[in-house]
Amino acid sequence: MFLPPTRATSLVLFLLFASTTLLSQPRDLKSQAMTAFVEEDYARAIELIRLAITSNPNNAENYYYLGHFLHQECVDAVPNPDCGRARSDEIIRHMEEAIARNPGLTDSYFYLGLEHGVRAREELFSGNPTGALEQLRIARAKNGLPDWLIEYGKNVLRSCEQSSILFTSGDAEANAIFYAQAIDRVRTDVTVIPIPLLNHPDFLLQLKRGIRDYLVPAPMSWGEQQILAGRPYRWKTRNITVPGMAGQILTYPVTSDITMESRTYLSLAKSAIIDIIRTNRWRRSIHFSLAAPVWSYNDLTRSLEIFGLTLRFVPVAGSGQGFAVNVGPTEHVLLDALNFAYLPTLRDRNFAQASILLNGYRDVFLQLIQTHMTNGRNAEARRALDAMDRHVPNDVLPMADVWMEFVSGLRQRLRE
């Protein structure tokens, strides 16, 4: 299954991008700044990259790194009074300065989309939907939400059953889906829950109440005072039960996801996911996006199936050995060429911190092909393989060598 972006993944992508500028340079201010950043000494990294800009004000990458460092300081650090709208303005300004000097510095567009996406949610949650729509349109106009990314968000929504609850990752995926629902009004029946926001009581409160025309409320048993007092809870692995089909009771061992001083805890986010699942009682279908963090569903894997570009929670317990593919809904998304109409625009504007999401397309195609082959449906497998070649061509979304070898093996088997 496709591995979603994590902080470690982002760090690898950052190092790959940074290394292209360092191989032929001495240990200058820029390289010192990046070393400090990798060591999470953000204040030092920011200080050094500012000096690098003073030394060379025409270097586009220096502005990108400054914006990136300022952003990451606010994401990773303890609450910082400097991390408000003025900081966001500064990050946006530096990304725009980077683009002005080098329009090909595509990761700068990612941060423009991210900053304006965060602002859009702030406007929506403060009761100003008009301001939220304006911020999303600004993100789009600045190329921070490209066609291929919005298309991906729509395809995730298309994978959901009517009136579903959809747990997603944050950043690019959440913003693309937010745009698809708020601006293009695609599948507004789906309650979209960016998992990183579940650690914030103010978002949980909005989720319980709902926002007319923009956020269908989620089923939660917690009262508002319990939500506002939300925190990590002391927790050792224990079983929870969820009613299944025909009176069956499904049992899941829920594991902790935080360890501090030899004690284990359940994060507010994971607690909220469990409460929503139990309170829902199968009234609405529950889905996890492929990029949702694994810890958010790893205790439920026995009851998850591949359903389009999502993992759907079903009221039966499987073997837990991999995810079964629900073929009909998955083919409905993958075999429709219209759902991939904008993927070729990736050639013009690709930022790796977002386009990593698109690996989910090929991953689900391959799961579907293997399912057909396992069940002796080679004609259907060939049809899916041909569709993958057309809809997700290698010259648009390059395939890793290990995947190339795997796909070559599938082709050989299907020719036999």
Question: Can you walk me through this structure?
Answer:
The chain is of the alpha/beta class. The protein has three domains: 99 residues, Tetratricopeptide repeat domain (Serine Threonine Protein Phosphatase 5, Tetratricopeptide repeat), CATH 1.25.40; 172 residues, no CATH class; 87 residues, no CATH class. Helices cover 51% and strands 10% of the residues. The protein is built from 17 helices and eleven strands. Strands 2-1-8-10-9-11 form a six-stranded mixed sheet, with helices on both faces. Strand 6 and strand 7 form a beta hairpin. Helix 3 runs antiparallel to helix 4.
Could you write a compact summary of the structure shown?
With 416 residues, this protein is of the alpha/beta class. The protein has helices at 7-22, 29-38, 42-55, 60-76, 85-101, 107-125, 129-141, 147-158, 171-182, 201-209, 224-228, 268-280, 327-334, 352-355, 359-374, 378-391, 401-415, and strands at residues 165-168, 191-194, 233-234, 238-243, 249-254, 258-260, 263-266, 286-289, 304-307, 310-313, 324-325.
